[in-house]
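Second opinion, please. Please look over this fold, written as tokens:

===
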Amino acid sequence: MRSILSASFMTAMCLSVSLPVTAQAQCGGNFSSFVAGLKAEAQRHGLSAAQADAFFKGVRQDSRVLKADRAQGVFRMSFLDFANRVISQNRLTNGARMAQKYDAIFDRAERDYGVSRGVLLAFWALETDFGQVQGDFNTRDALVTLAHDCRRPQLFRPQVIAAAELFKRGDFDPARTIGAWAGEVGQVQMLPDDILRNGVDGDGDGHVDLKGSSADALMSGARMIAGMGWRRGEPWLQEIAVPAEMDWSKTGLNRSLSTAEWARMGVKPRSGAFAGGQGSVLLPMGRKGPAFIAYPNFKVLFEWNKSFVYVTTAAYFATRLEGAPRVDPQSPEPGLSVAQMKALQQKLQAQGFDVGPIDGILGEKTREAVQRVQKRLGLPADAWPTPALLQRL
């Protein structure tokens, strides 16, 4: 999935557009008139009038898509709750089986693009349960519905045009192609524009089929991750043990030190040795919860998906699939309920902090604001909001 939402889980968005678009994407209004505008735009991008008519024939608004777009509550869960929910022994077992079954494909993906099999397996599992759950929304209708909706038209309108281009190439059936509610398609859930730019014919049949071909899906996913800036042969996440006391304000993804500097502060790998180089200490549930060192490749994964809890879980899952032990949950302090988190975000916003939308989700902006407030109040600045912090504010 190219960083909007997945077939199984709903998350935030990010988009890289390679097709030219209008300066201001139009949205809303009469649906038929809106579709007529899309047809004209598709023709400007190279479709014939007949092709544009065929692509948009029978298009309709899907109310289920808008309902799903407004309901993203799963990412209000903590890291441990989310990880325990999605990383089951069954998925670990199936991951090992798939690694063996597609061993040659994973070897090729690593050779050609430098992306570890654990990372590909983790996203394959979390997105579609290794291809078993790819979504049941008509992709064209979902994209047109979201483009017409005035919440994020600049995000989805280019994807409609990209899907039309795939149709022109013979790799998209507008009536039958189904996927996730936000328009992602296939076993690793990629948007049409990303399929155009990163699609790989992994099985050599002359077509890029991300739905039916695991080889195509995995090679395309690897190419996309590589294009995001993945560093060949480098790690992404490693579990650590942190001392009882340290300068917690140095932790977080926006701060990076050498592993030697972290070691001097008392940070130790839970198993093995540090990989060397730079890394950030990641405390997804505060200083008393599980702890990781996030290497530069970890940040690349946010180009796939913008949800902090999703990316952290996927990265941790990838290490498990490559043999790392189960994370030590430690004893994190109680977090906030959804209502409390919204109240906290409102208080932080009132104090001038940019926390993004008031959605009850502990995202990057809210974490950064919490850490700054903790430091100002003389509290351990570990970016984990607690009821005590809320009360202090």
